[in-house]
Design brief:
- The protein is α+β, with helices and mostly antiparallel strands.
- Helix content is about 20%, strand content about 30%.
- The two termini are about 35 Å apart.
Length: about 150
């Protein structure tokens, strides 16, 4: 994977898009995550999952979110880190074993702070998409992003 130069508030523009690398998911990963963090039958047992809303084994939404975070950190390399202040998350379809996920992120808004001029708030939409182009997760989040050299004269 290519290492990208760190990005700061002044490097970002509304409308810019970033695409991550891919992450493949298998049954063992789904079950291991579920055992530790979301122990429900539709995440743990392929046979039991057939008789649920999901009609088969589904990754926890939080597993999809964790994969998203990993891919986001590498594809949107903010110099101050990915520091969230909140957001909205949706899982329009389940993530399944065999899915290969990637994240497409788009900057929706940039608001420089008036009270703390060394930073701003960036609204970012992150779509976690499978190999068929289907969105498994949509996250719209607000991130604290620092300026490269602290306060500027802007």
């Amino acid at each position: 994977m290519t290492k990208h130069a760190p990005l700061y508030l002044d490097d970002l523009v509304v409308g810019a898009e970033y695409r991550s690398a891919e992450q493949h998911l298998n049954v063992e990963q789904i079950i291991a995550f579920a055992r530790q963090f979301d122990p429900q039958s539709f995440h743990l047992d392929e046979e039991a999952a057939k008789n649920t809303l999901f009609q088969g084994l589904a990754a926890s939404g939080w597993h999809t979110a964790a994969i998203t975070m990993k891919l986001l950190v590498a594809s949107v390399p903010l110099g101050s880190g990915i520091i969230g202040t909140g957001g909205d998350i949706e899982w329009p379809r389940p993530t399944r074993s065999g899915d290969t996920l990637h994240v497409v992120s788009k900057i929706l808004d940039i608001v420089p702070s008036r009270s703390k001029p060394d930073r701003g708030i960036v609204s970012l939409e992150c779509l976690t998409v499978n190999q068929n182009g289907e969105t498994c997760q949509r996250l719209v989040t607000k991130l604290v992003v620092m300026r490269k050299h602290g306060v500027t004269d802007r």
